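INFO  loader      accepted 1 record
INFO  loader      residues=203
INFO  predictor   begin
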Amino acid sequence: MAETDVESIAGTDPFILFGEWMKEAEKTELNDATAMALATADASGFPDVRMVLLKDVSPEGFVFYTNLESAKGEELAENPQAALCFHWKSLRRQIRVRGDISPVADAEADAYFASRAKDSQIGAWASRQSRPLQSRFELEKEVARFAAKYVIKSVERPPHWSGFRLAPRQIEFWQDRPFRLHDRLVFQREAPSAPWQTSKLFP
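INFO  predictor   done
INFO  writer      dumping tokens
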């Protein structure tokens, strides 16, 4: 599909093209195809970026989960806008997304948390994410404490752990072409309820 015009696949819905590219990436990427860079900024506009995993995608947006008391959780509370970047080196493709952030519903977060491995659930309780850590032993002690607490019962979702949904206002698809004459197709809308407008950019 590398030589297919991206516009002919996407039509007026960028999520159709995203789904096609994600399917291909899941077959070719050596590591996790759902890995994405998440860029945030605090109330002053000072930026930050890190890798997270995409856990759900629909026309409503892109979902990821985190500790709400982490640096990214606090930044998203202060400035509920963010950007994502998927880069699939095996396919020479990139997708950039910008949009508004909102929390997922409690029921949605509960359902995803329940699907996680128990060790990961315990880790969500044990880790005070982004806070100073005196030693590895301090973390291991917390893991042991919560493992003992939940040894014979299911682990409920911590109140400080949940998800966010990025509702895109802009999605750009980038595809490598010879001699750096790359394809760049952009979908934009003024609000989540507005129709998408498309345009192409010089590489």
